Amino acid sequence: MAKTLIMAAVNGARRTKADHPALPISVAEIAEDVAACAGAGAAMAHVHVRDGYGQHALDVELYERVIARIAECTGPDFFVQATTEAAGRYTPEAQIALIKTLCPAVVSIAVSELLPDPTDGPARTRFRELCEWMQAHAVWPQFILYRPEEVETLLRLHADGDIPFIEPFLLFVLGRYSERQVATPDDLPPFLEALGSVPTTWMTCAFGPQEHACAEAAIAAGGHVRVGFENNLWLPDGGVAESNAALVALAAEAARESGRGVMAPADAAALRAQLLC
């Protein structure tokens, strides 16, 4: 199996320093934290930016600043994934505007936010046109899926040509709708069953203290993993993780012990180039 791509999700849209004092919020904090994650084995980072009030923001200028600062700390092969998460604040129009104005190298898109009803003709056309624009402008999207049923929707969109990328890049979010929003490794098989044998590159993230167990399950099944404070603050033994880098290091150790190994940033950059087709 291919090496494991580890993505660090360092802050998210909602958590604050009241949740963990090491949660990075400012541009400088985010860059320093991502650099530490890169040193621990992350090949990409999923980053949210915050406005002056600490609120989740789809802000092009803030993203440009944080991406530039991270590049100074990590090098040109380390890509930052911007988010389009609505977080109850942003419309699909604002989400699309961020993508087209920022033109990030990598971006995450929740299919259920941009296309909540696949039978809505105008919304589906808008979604298809966005995907075509991203492919034409070398923006690599990761499609976020919260339920196995959403996998089936995405596969139909891909089969119908609404998603033109030859092999979609997927994120299975484990535990988002589980009791108390806590994931377990048992949440993964329904996603894989929905996926079937369709060629895709997939990754998991997992809510709660079983994040590492879920990562181990994903690695064993041939997937990639996203870990970090956005979804989880705890170590496998129940203690609070000191940093995002500590969670990344655990995932890297699991990938090496599995025999797959860990992607370097250059490996992840090569995967991006391959899947932009």
TrEMBL record:
Its cofactor is Zn(2+). InterPro entries: Aldolase_TIM (IPR013785), BKACE (IPR008567). Keywords: Metal-binding, Transferase, Zinc. It holds the Pfam family BKACE. One of its GO terms (molecular function) is metal ion binding. This is Uncharacterized protein (DUF849 family).
